[in-house]
Amino acid sequence: MTLTTQVTCTLSLTLSNDAGDFLGNWKAQCPDGKKGSGIAAANLLPFNQAVIFGLLGQPVFGGCGWSIIALRDGNRLRGDWSTPQGCQTGPALQGRMELTKQ
Q1: What are the structural domain ranges in the chain?
Q2: The whole model's pTM is what?
Protein backbone atom coordinates (compact mmCIF):
# COMPACT_ATOMS: atom_id res chain seq x y z
CA MET A 1 0.00 0.00 0.00
CA THR A 2 1.30 3.45 -0.92
CA LEU A 3 0.33 6.45 1.18
CA THR A 4 0.33 9.89 -0.31
CA THR A 5 0.24 13.06 1.70
CA GLN A 6 -0.52 16.52 0.46
CA VAL A 7 1.57 19.47 1.47
CA THR A 8 1.58 23.04 0.19
CA CYS A 9 5.03 24.54 -0.30
CA THR A 10 5.79 28.10 -1.36
CA LEU A 11 7.72 28.39 -4.62
CA SER A 12 9.05 31.69 -5.91
CA LEU A 13 10.80 32.46 -9.18
CA THR A 14 12.96 35.47 -9.96
CA LEU A 15 13.30 35.65 -13.73
CA SER A 16 14.58 38.23 -16.18
CA ASN A 17 13.87 38.38 -19.90
CA ASP A 18 16.85 37.67 -22.16
CA ALA A 19 15.89 37.83 -25.86
CA GLY A 20 12.56 36.02 -25.37
CA ASP A 21 13.80 33.47 -22.84
CA PHE A 22 13.36 33.98 -19.12
CA LEU A 23 16.26 32.95 -16.88
CA GLY A 24 16.84 33.23 -13.15
CA ASN A 25 16.44 31.37 -9.87
CA TRP A 26 13.81 29.53 -7.88
CA LYS A 27 13.37 29.07 -4.13
CA ALA A 28 11.00 26.76 -2.26
CA GLN A 29 9.96 26.54 1.39
CA CYS A 30 7.80 23.75 2.84
CA PRO A 31 5.94 23.69 6.17
CA ASP A 32 8.24 20.98 7.57
CA GLY A 33 11.20 23.36 7.22
CA LYS A 34 12.65 21.86 4.03
CA LYS A 35 14.02 24.49 1.67
CA GLY A 36 15.43 24.31 -1.81
CA SER A 37 16.78 26.57 -4.50
CA GLY A 38 18.26 26.39 -7.95
CA ILE A 39 18.30 27.73 -11.48
CA ALA A 40 15.04 28.33 -13.37
CA ALA A 41 14.14 29.02 -16.99
CA ALA A 42 10.87 29.68 -18.80
CA ASN A 43 9.89 29.85 -22.44
CA LEU A 44 6.59 31.14 -23.80
CA LEU A 45 4.73 28.79 -26.13
CA PRO A 46 1.77 29.32 -28.47
CA PHE A 47 -1.82 29.05 -27.23
CA ASN A 48 -1.19 30.78 -23.88
CA GLN A 49 1.23 28.15 -22.63
CA ALA A 50 4.66 28.35 -21.03
CA VAL A 51 7.22 25.70 -20.22
CA ILE A 52 9.08 26.27 -16.95
CA PHE A 53 11.83 24.12 -15.53
CA GLY A 54 14.07 24.20 -12.52
CA LEU A 55 17.46 22.58 -11.99
CA LEU A 56 19.04 21.51 -8.70
CA GLY A 57 16.38 20.58 -6.22
CA GLN A 58 18.13 19.68 -2.99
CA PRO A 59 16.46 18.84 -0.65
CA VAL A 60 12.86 19.74 -1.59
CA PHE A 61 12.89 17.88 -4.92
CA GLY A 62 15.43 15.23 -3.92
CA GLY A 63 18.22 16.81 -5.93
CA CYS A 64 16.25 16.43 -9.14
CA GLY A 65 14.99 19.10 -11.46
CA TRP A 66 11.30 19.76 -12.05
CA SER A 67 9.25 20.96 -15.00
CA ILE A 68 5.78 22.18 -15.90
CA ILE A 69 3.84 23.13 -19.00
CA ALA A 70 1.61 25.85 -17.62
CA LEU A 71 -1.38 27.73 -18.99
CA ARG A 72 -1.06 31.50 -18.95
CA ASP A 73 -4.07 33.45 -17.70
CA GLY A 74 -3.34 37.14 -17.20
CA ASN A 75 -0.62 37.36 -14.55
CA ARG A 76 -0.96 33.67 -13.53
CA LEU A 77 0.60 30.42 -14.66
CA ARG A 78 -1.13 27.18 -13.66
CA GLY A 79 -0.46 23.51 -14.29
CA ASP A 80 0.85 20.19 -13.05
CA TRP A 81 4.58 19.78 -12.40
CA SER A 82 6.73 16.73 -11.83
CA THR A 83 10.28 15.58 -11.30
CA PRO A 84 11.87 13.05 -13.71
CA GLN A 85 10.64 9.46 -13.40
CA GLY A 86 13.87 8.15 -11.89
CA CYS A 87 13.82 10.65 -9.01
CA GLN A 88 12.27 9.00 -5.97
CA THR A 89 14.30 10.50 -3.13
CA GLY A 90 12.63 13.86 -2.51
CA PRO A 91 9.58 14.60 -0.39
CA ALA A 92 7.99 16.47 -3.32
CA LEU A 93 7.83 14.54 -6.61
CA GLN A 94 4.77 15.97 -8.36
CA GLY A 95 1.88 18.32 -7.77
CA ARG A 96 -0.13 21.32 -8.87
CA MET A 97 1.55 24.71 -9.29
CA GLU A 98 0.06 28.18 -9.47
CA LEU A 99 2.38 31.15 -9.93
CA THR A 100 1.31 34.80 -9.81
CA LYS A 101 3.43 37.57 -11.31
CA GLN A 102 4.16 40.28 -8.77
Answers
A1: 10-100
A2: 0.73
